[in-house]
Amino acid sequence: MKKVRISVDLNAPKKKSRGRINKKLLDATTEIDIARHKKIDDDLAMRDAGKYAARVRKKMGLSQQDFSRKIGVPIETIRNWEQGKRAPTGAAKALLRILDRSPELALLALSA
Questions:
Q1: Which helix (H) or strand (E) holds 95?
Q2: In terms of Cα–Cα distance, which of 100, 49, 99, 90 is closest to 71?
Q3: In whole angstroms, what is the distance from residue 60 CA to residue 38 CA?
Q4: Over 90: is that where the pLDDT of 49 sits?
């Protein structure tokens, strides 16, 4: 294994590049624009969570109704997740992760 030694002179830090920032556009951004962008970002996150929930369900080969019965969640909740109207949170998100990684063990634990 090759070793590389790096020395840093704290008295002469490198000048950081500023990147590409359009200061006029940044200054022209209003609170309304920020709120609109936040809503768009939140909507995309909800759709991603819905896609994840649908992928886990399909990976298990279950219909929405069967999936809702197996995990003890109302079918309306499953539909809302998959349509991006709501996102799974807390325990539901953890359960989806467990179902994604070890579906057999998760279903065995849920059936007991």
A1: helix 90-101
A2: 99
A3: 33
A4: no
Q: Which amino acid is at 103?
A: P
Mean model confidence pLDDT for the chain = 86
- Residues 63, 87: Cα–Cα separation, whole Å: 19
Confidence check: pLDDT of 17 > 80:
no
- What domains sit in the chain, N to C, each tagged with a CATH number? 33-111 (1.10.260.40)
Q: Is the pLDDT of residue 16 over 80?
A: no
Taking the C-alpha atoms of residue 85 and residue 54, their distance in angstroms, rounded to an integer, is 13
| Alpha-carbon span 110 to 112, nearest angstrom | 6
Residue ranges of the alpha helices (H) in the chain?
Answer: 23-28, 31-59, 64-71, 75-82, 90-101, 103-111
Q: What is the pTM for the complete model shown?
A: 0.61
